[in-house]
Design brief:
heterodimer; A: alpha+beta; Jelly Rolls; five-stranded antiparallel sheet; four-stranded antiparallel sheet; about 10% strand; globular; B: alpha/beta; Alkaline Phosphatase, subunit A; nine-stranded mixed sheet; two-stranded antiparallel ribbon; 17 strands
């Protein structure tokens, strides 16, 4: 609508005023190209040798020797001839309706004026727009000024403020995912608490962080299992807890991004920063027998690239894996410059899911602390670096050499497949470790699995060289052992040899690491510390969380372009970088994930802030300012109010200091947010999706909110935060049929049965039915936007799921002491919606109560039937 | 007609638009293409302003549809073509000889190591029917209907692990995230019965296929198009049964009460989504009756039970075949059967070619033959497409896991050539398309990639697979990804 108006206006100016006017490429020309031309003349399909994604392609000689666009000369430009052509076969757009006369004029004028190109709006850094002046009273909140200015051309005015009760429900769900807690609700509704104070109180609730985390975890494709066939459990819930804490602590978004993408590369990272890197360890891993680990490692890296671009840049990179972007100016090679940034982490689809951060039991943590203190005290070099490397050694068990780096393998078998990704050895087999200066090495750490009995020998130089140490083993579980060594200095080769009887596999070795000499090793007390090292290495972990660790120089991988996206066909080698389109004036090279994260969170970066703000807006209003939150590139929806988007984006990265709480606060305090969501048929017809914002938002509750609300209103919800995922009851047999898996769903008891949905164990191949039924993702890939559906299966769930029946019974209990049936029905309404029943509702539900009573002759049962019905009403399933 | 529904229709026509159209609730939501024409979801009317999706669909339905519905029998684990359909006397002669290096160089196998031995077929073959199709002695009943089917003898895939290969077969991509075959089809065509889901999945063999439930997930299509797994134990559909003590009558009254309150809400607020919800509750109530009814095979006459070899109450492939016919009769669009247990590595007795495979064949032979005969005698075969196949084939070499001879005979995963067949729904009966080399290692003529098979099935349903797309993340996605050609030679 707006665009055709613009077109008309500009055409009018052209035709009548004959004034010099520069066409705006993004406003006037790009929409024509994108809608009418780019399907055939894009970045991949360039029919006739003509593509419109890059200016240089568009100005190039085409296949038939003509030039489609000759700057300054519309008469010589084939594009004009073809859009005007009288022969239907030759007239463009091919097989489509002809361009309008206005559109053709625009093209002509644009070419006349030099056919200047301009990047898509989203790829240009946002500048803070002027706040529109609103006649009749400037609103306090600038958001309202932008919205009101945009309503003017449509003859629309903002809706009145929503009733307090609705607003309370709306803002409470939007900020905390729950109905407002009793203590806030009462004072707010009675007028004793200002809206602004309500907001601050809600933002301070621990439930705030849980709710924001629930949304983030879907982007992060967080799950408690690994995916694919066996879909075995995965321990990464500390990442989930990190996200909750980050939101509750209001960790600024630039740090929030940096810690997740590159926490491990920060100087002197904290354990929390390591846990944050779990973001990209949420990729699938494949444990199916016979799968090649490298294939699925590569798949994970590709997913990390795609997810990074979708989550932080609202840009779809998937296409570029195989060829240039069909619509956006991103080149084929540029996918692989991102790939190179993510291609050097240690994880490799190994069954151990290494590397992982160990959380030790309390007594061991004490020992570990003493080791750290000792190193700090005795280290000669920069102590922090030394403490870091000891922590890596003990708590992450990195760096380690893996079988692909073992040399001179004699008889050992290594297949790099699924759960057989380990070096199998028979008696007499041997291999060597790459030559290395061993003068600073005190011991080897060996991760091994004895399959029989025998001894392992470490020898110098060759399998027959000087014996340094032997280790006897008997069939048992996989473990880490420490082999102290006394080795003469200089570069040496160590040879590992197995001895034993028979010809069967007796030992499997997964990884070997070097322990450096302890600083102050000769000081009194050092012996205790050395004992601790061995203890800590063998200690059982309380939690073992997947994290990212960068490879060391010796195991660094090269990155190549994959021909047509096929990981087995290598093209030229590539190094890290970012697409030229977005590079701007970047003067520092982008070589690793940390450089990348810093580039990403630079306030001048055109996309980061816009994408974050747009997603936040979408969460509150049900639809983003750019509706396609996952894609704000040239095929994404055009923002209805780009000025507002840019205003919020510049505020977020500027004055608001990347604070999500402050951003949310500013939005929910606006009149725009507080409008009533009622819509007249006229308004619905004019603006069905509320893109103009002349009314308040209306949304169906999410899967998580539906469960949490039921538990909250019935008083069943437990407030326990954090910790391992829990298993509230689900129908029998959902897990039993998963192939090659013996894992079982064991119903949680006690308070763990009634926790918020984000703590429910999430197994990718069988997510809890409440999640799948109400449109949640199964977390195999990043999902930016759930498609909300409305199905009979949802009705069946909230009608018949025993969990909802339990809630209904509890609700019936809560009101059973009220004097009569109408009072109890009012009581239920108060619990659920903080209002008494309307007369019609009373009438309908008293009738239902009577019918149920007639069947069951029991007041409590009859009341439970009524509560069960109430849990299904539209008003309770939506936020208005 | 219920006045509420009339109003619903009226409002729908008024307010429908792209997003709302997608959220349009009905289970069998009128397919984007045929929405106004059939069954459930007729409300999603034809009057609706043309959305991007609809414009796409308008061009995607390019052919006269020959098939109205699909019954897809997926043998999870990948059956051996060399023991069932691909007769290779030359391989028999090479039995026990070391595999030539040319067959191993540059190839990836799941378990074979070093130099395996060639392994001749463990079954005997005979030609059957007028078409002279080769079928082994392991499928005696099926050989009687060989004239009804078209064999694809040189199907190939690049995936050689179960989960990715099954995903490729059922979603067009080896990585998770894409909509499944059935989801695409119900998205395009909707359901013919408003009281049943449009896409139903039945599983036998005691296990889900390796690819798991994502094999019938809806990916980025609205979740109403996901396959609904009907179970033989517990509720056939989750939460279908009313709670204990809730009579049908009382449930009816409670849903009526909910809908009355929701109607009041709609009158006050005017949100069209509320009307959709009212409709969904009515449908849920009807489904509670219709699903158990259609799933109840006990009512079938004895001769039908004898024909299929069914035992009511068990979750067998035979029961599922009979259920598939009943669901097809009731207008379910896409019925997917998975039978687990075809991974004949020979690493145990039950996975061996000499004992495991014959037992597995016995479990399907009679029932799948009966399904074809039964559909035919009911006049349904002409518009019901039956598809049979695994996710890949098996090696002409004997598996030697760990580089040693194994106690039983088995074959490793093999993607270069395997056999599938189709029947009914516009498929030419009694033809063989494609041919493998003399040991059945690779296709030498008329090879068919997985995407070609998918293009063919879509073609039989009336779709041009290249135009049948869904815009997501800035790109038009399709079931056949970026390749695939419909195999005209097997289409009538």
């Amino acid at each position: 609508m707006k665009r055709s108006l613009l077109v008309l206006v500009s055409a009018f100016i052209m035709l009548t005023c004959q004034e010099e006017r520069t066409i705006n490429f993004n406003e006037d020309i790009r929409p024509i190209f994108n809608e009418k031309c780019i399907g055939c003349h894009g970045g991949v399909k360039q029919a006739g040798g003509f593509g419109l994604v890059f200016r240089e392609n568009a100005l190039r000689e085409t296949d038939n020797g003509k030039f489609a666009i000759v700057p300054g000369k519309p008469g010589q430009s084939e594009i004009i001839a073809r859009v005007r052509h009288e022969n239907e076969e030759l007239r463009m757009p091919f097989e489509g309706p002809a361009l309008s006369e206005e559109e053709i004029h625009l093209l002509e004028t644009w070419i006349e004026e030099g056919a200047e190109w301009e990047e898509h709006w989203a790829y240009l850094a946002p500048t803070k727009p002027e706040i529109p002046v609103i006649e009749g009273g400037q609103p306090d909140n600038s958001i309202d000024a932008f919205v009101m200015a945009a309503l003017l051309p449509y003859d629309l005015v903002p809706a009145p403020r929503a009733p307090k009760r609705e607003l309370l429900r709306r803002v409470s769900f939007d900020l905390t995912g729950l109905p407002a807690p009793e203590f806030l609700a009462e004072v707010f509704l009675s007028g004793d608490l200002a809206y602004e104070v309500l907001i601050d109180s809600l933002l301070a609730q621990p439930s705030y962080g849980e709710h924001q985390a629930a949304k983030w975890l879907e982007l992060a494709r967080y799950a408690d299992s690994r995916g694919y066939e066996r879909d075995r459990p995965r321990e990464i819930w500390r990442y989930r807890d990190w996200v909750i804490k980050a939101f509750n602590d209001d960790l600024p978004y630039d740090d929030f991004v940096t810690h997740q993408l590159a926490g491990d590369l920060l100087p002197d990272p904290t354990e929390d920063q390591l846990v944050a890197t779990g973001f990209h360890r949420n990729t699938l891993s494949n444990g199916e027998g016979g799968t090649e680990n490298e294939e699925f490692r590569v798949a994970s890296v590709i997913d990390r690239v795609n997810t990074t671009w979708e989550v932080f840049q609202g840009t779809t990179m998937g296409c570029v894996q195989c060829h240039a972007h069909p619509y956006d100016p991103i080149r084929y090679e540029e996918f692989y410059t991102s790939y190179a940034l993510f291609n050097n982490t240690v994880d490799h689809d190994h069954v151990s899911e290494a590397p992982r951060l160990r959380t030790l039991y309390a007594a061991d943590e004490v020992k570990y602390k003493r080791l750290e203190d000792w190193v700090t005290e005795h280290a000669e070099e920069e102590a922090r670096t030394q403490v870091q490397s000891w922590r890596q050694l003990i708590k992450v068990r990195e760096p380690r050499l893996r079988p692909d780096l073992f040399e001179n393998v004699e008889g050992g078998v290594f297949t790099a497949r699924a759960d057989e990704d380990i070096m199998f050895l028979r008696p007499g087999n041997s291999f060597a470790l790459p030559p290395r200066d061993l003068s600073e090495v005190a011991a080897l750490h060996v991760n091994l699995r004895p399959l029989g009995s025998g001894t392992l020998e470490v020898r110098l130089a060759s399998p027959t060289g000087q014996l340094l140490i032997t280790h006897a083993f008997e069939r048992g579980r996989q473990e880490d052992i420490r082999l102290p060594l006394v080795i003469p200095g200089g570069e040496r080769v160590l040879s590992i040899v197995t001895r034993g009887d028979g010809n069967g596999k007796i030992l499997a070795i997964d990884a070997i690491g070097y322990e450096p000499k302890l600083p102050g090793a000769e000081q009194p007390g050092a012996e205790d510390i050395k004992t601790f090292i061995g203890d800590l290495l063998a200690a059982k972990d309380s939690v073992n969380t997947l994290i990212m660790v960068e490879t060391t120089d010796e195991s660094r991988r090269k990155s190549y372009l994959f021909e047509r996206g096929n990981w087995m066909v290598h093209g030229p080698e590539v190094t890290g970088g970012v697409p030229k389109l977005l590079d701007g004036e970047a003067d520092t090279p982008i070589e690793n994930r940390l450089d990348f994260a810093r580039w990403l969170t630079n306030p001048d970066q055109p996309l980061t802030s816009r994408v974050a703000v747009n997603r936040t807006w979408g969460q509150l209003f049900g639809i983003g300012l750019v509706a396609t939150t996952e894609d704000i590139g040239s095929q994404g929806s055009k923002p209805k109010n780009q000025q507002l988007l840019d205003y919020l984006a510049t505020e977020y990265s500027g004055p608001l200091g990347w604070s999500k709480k402050r951003l949310l606060r500013q939005i929910v305090l606006s009149n725009t947010y507080q409008q009533s969501s009622r819509a007249t048929p006229q308004l619905l017809a004019k603006d069905p999706h509320n893109e103009l914002l002349a009314r308040g938002p209306r949304k169906r509750l999410t899967a998580e909110e539906i469960r949490d609300q039921a538990l909250a209103v019935s008083g069943l919800l437990t407030e326990k935060c954090y910790g391992p995922s829990v298993m509230p009851p689900q129908p029998d047999g959902l897990w039993g049929t998963i192939t090659h898996s013996r894992n079982e769903w064991v119903n949680s008891t006690g308070e763990d049965r009634y926790r918020r949905a984000l703590y429910t164990h999430l197994r990718r191949s069988a997510i809890h039915p409440v999640m799948s039924t109400f449109d949640a993702s199964n977390r195999e890939l990043c999902l930016s936007r759930r498609t909300i559906t409305n199905t009979p299966l949802q009705a069946l769930m909230t009608l018949n799921d025993p969990a909802y029946l339990e809630v209904a019974e509890r609700l019936a209990d809560e009101v059973s002491n009220l004097p009569n049936v109408p009072a109890r029905i009012d009581g239920l309404y108060e619990l659920l919606l903080r209002r008494p029943a309307e007369p019609l509702e009373q009438q309908v539900l008293v009738q239902l109560y009577d019918d149920a009573y007639a069947t069951h002759q029991d007041a409590h049962t009859a009341l439970t039937v009524v509560a069960n019905a109430l849990l299904n009403i539209d008003e309770l399933l939506t936020i208005s | 007609m219920n006045p509420l529904l009339n109003e619903f229709r009226h409002r729908e026509a008024q307010y429908n638009s792209r997003r709302h159209f997608l959220r349009q609730g009905a289970l069998g939501l009128g397919g984007i293409a045929l929405g106004g024409l059939m069954g459930c979801g007729t409300d999603a009317g034809a009057q609706v302003a043309k959305t991007k999706e609809e414009k796409i669909m308008a061009t995607a339905l390019s052919y006269a549809p020959r098939a109205k519905r699909v019954i897809y029998l997926h043998m999870a684990g990948a059956p051996s073509q060399l023991e069932l359909f691909d007769y290779k006397p030359a391989l028999q002669k090479l039995d026990g000889q070391p595999c030539p290096p040319s067959l191993l160089a540059g190839k990836r196998f799941a378990f074979i190591q070093g130099t395996p031995m060639m392994l001749g077929s463990q079954a005997t073959f005979q030609q059957h029917g007028q078409s002279g199709a080769w079928v082994s002695n392991l499928l005696p009943n099926f050989s009687e209907v060989a004239d009804e089917v078209a064999f694809l003898k040189a199907v190939h895939t690049e995936e050689f692990n179960h989960a990715p290969a099954q995903l490729l077969m059922q979603t067009g991509s080896p990585r998770p995230g894409r909509p499944s075959f059935g989801s695409w089809v119900t998205y395009g065509l909707g359901s013919e019965n408003e009281n049943l889901p449009g896409f139903i999945v039945l599983v036998s063999g005691g296990r889900d296929p390796s690819g798991g439930k994502k094999l019938w997930g809806s990916g980025f299509l609205p979740s109403i198009h996901q396959g609904i797994q009907c179970r033989t134990a517990g509720d056939p559909i989750l939460y279908l049964s009313d709670p204990e003590g809730m009579s049908r009558d009382l449930r009816g009254k409670s849903i009526a009460a909910i809908n009355e309150i929701n109607k009041r809400q709609y009158d006050e607020v005017g949100n069209p989504e509320t009307l959709t919800r009212i409709k969904q509750y009515e449908m849920a109530f009807k489904m509670q009756m219709s699903v158990p009814e259609v799933m109840d095979i006990e009512k079938e006459p004895d001769y039908i039970h004898e024909m299929y070899g069914t035992t009511p109450g068990k979750s067998t492939f035979a029961n599922n075949c009979l259920m598939a016919r009943r669901l097809a009769e009731s207008g379910v669009r896409f019925i997917q059967l998975y039978d687990w247990g075809w991974d004949n590595h020979g690493s145990s007795r039950s996975t061996s070619l000499e004992e495991g495979l014959p037992a597995q064949c016995k479990g399907i032979d009679q029932a799948m033959a009966a399904l074809i005969k039964d559909l035919k005698q009911r006049g349904m075969l002409e518009d019901t497409l039956v598809v049979w196949g695994g996710e890949f084939g098996r090696t002409p070499m004997r598996e030697n896991r760990g580089g040693v001879e194994m106690p039983f005979l088995g074959r490793d995963h093999h993607g270069e050539a395997f056999t599938m067949w189709m029947a009914g729904g516009g498929v030419k009966p009694g033809v063989v398309y494609g041919e493998t080399d003399e040991i059945g290692y690779a296709g030498v003529r008329d090879r068919a990639h997985v995407h070609d098979v998918q293009a063919t099935v879509l073609g039989l349903l009336g779709f041009d697979h290249e135009k049948f797309t869904y815009p997501f993340q800035g790109r038009n996605f399709r079931l056949t990804d970026v390749t695939g050609t419909a195999i005209k030679d097997i289409m009538v």
